[in-house]
């Protein structure tokens, strides 16, 4: 089966897409202009602050009365809680005042360890307002990964809950030399030294605050990568990044001010902040903040009951919904949806088409990384979708395929040739370094070109296709095999829910392909099914690329951001050390 292009007729869309024509906007767009636009609407004198763009700017405009956050608590039966832009602004101001009253200064590092709650939004925005740096942590991290990240970032303070404090911080946090405060959203009996409940403190603080005017290049966010390929890196992002958050959300997510927008990413990783907090607030939309974890019925219920118009989610979630089938989706009225997007992992063509058939809309895949701070390559609202492709570069982004050479690099001009995906430096949300890892940062560049570590090719129409991470690519009998291509074919089999593919050493071929497969409910592993899936793969991919062996698993190892950890499948297969598993969520045994 091959996938036809999904054509978009802009005139049939409920609202006009932000991109009239991809090429037209690409030609006329410049980051320089976008940056000066923001600086002019900013704090004067070329100063900016992410929180000013996200909140302050709306105060005194009709947007201030709009609902910024609609919070859906995980407590059963709890009613949704609405927080307007004005109310969120006041809360963020109180938080900024609280930090200042404790003596925190510009540049101090404030870590956030909490689930997805309005308090976390207040903390992020208040921290930025005070000129401090915010670093989000996954609330599901254990003590070790938390400590490692706080040490790298020399944390001044951490905001969390008493439950997470007791479970993950008590016992060691006081030893962290840089740490001055543990701030609690709720209360703790017998608060240890320098542990403070925020409620009484915020109560005493005023509801206005003069947002700190920052240099565009001042550090604002410290984001740790997902750790899919190894030890997580701390990527440094600056205040000017907000320009990219705003623009890319308009282009790639088609955000309009009257949208009800839901980003399902955890706030502990970059999508959860760039597109789950900052960008939507900049656009004045109403955001759904759901505290609960994935649950197919709850999710469909939220899409329906909240009238979600724009939905940004991830392939793992989409594959889980696919596992429950169309019957479940058909029980809900999802007619308010008008734009679906996905990020985090390659989106299998099967999933794009499933969206169209089941939800009435295709998923728009887009590609980016913690390092890029914002979406770089996307299938736009106004653009034809090629299922399986990441799309085309954002306006202002120059992407190319290249090889490293002994003395530099060569750009590959020919279409359909695989190489490393590279980006020309110079957009606002580009990371400015890996904290304390100068050498690792330097190695990611050849001249102006940033090497992403992902392999891809570009087709005749300028669409980019993900092949695999450079580390995951399999070299078999002279072929370069991308795990994504093989996994996508395995997913075409109706029994397959998840697939992960690795290369294992082979005397003759160098490496051969081995597949791991998790099945949908109602399917039992067995020889007949194994033969059937392997047969499909051979027929579709040819014997050189198809897996030589296949094993069924209950589930596959995944990071907390939902990425399949192929390196772990491989290490276990070969009996090698597992390496850094601090971000492992589903151990997949
Ligand atoms: P680490 O760098 O620590 O190994 P990571 O690369 O998984 O972790 P992130 O920055 O969260 O950390 O993820 C970015 C990576 O996710 C990309 O480099 C790419 O490999 C993958 N990715 C994200 N979106 C897509 C997409 N749409 N298609 C294919 N791959 C994607
Ligand atoms: Mg990476």
UniProtKB/TrEMBL annotation:
Alphabetized GO MF terms: acetate-CoA ligase activity; ATP binding
UniProt cross-references to Pfam families, sorted A to Z: AMP-binding, AMP-binding_C
Stretches assigned to the AMP-dependent synthetase/ligase domain: 63-435
Gene Ontology annotations of biological process type: acetyl-CoA biosynthetic process
E.C. code: 6.2.1.1
Domain AMP-binding enzyme C-terminal, residue spans: 485-563
Keywords attached to this entry: Acetylation, ATP-binding, Ligase, Nucleotide-binding
Record carries keyword Cytoplasm: no
Organism domain of life: Bacteria
InterPro entries: AMP-bd_C, AMP-bd_C_sf, AMP-binding_CS, AMP-dep_synth/lig_dom, ANL_N_sf
NCBIfam families: PRK04319.1
Name this protein carries in UniProt: acetate--CoA ligase
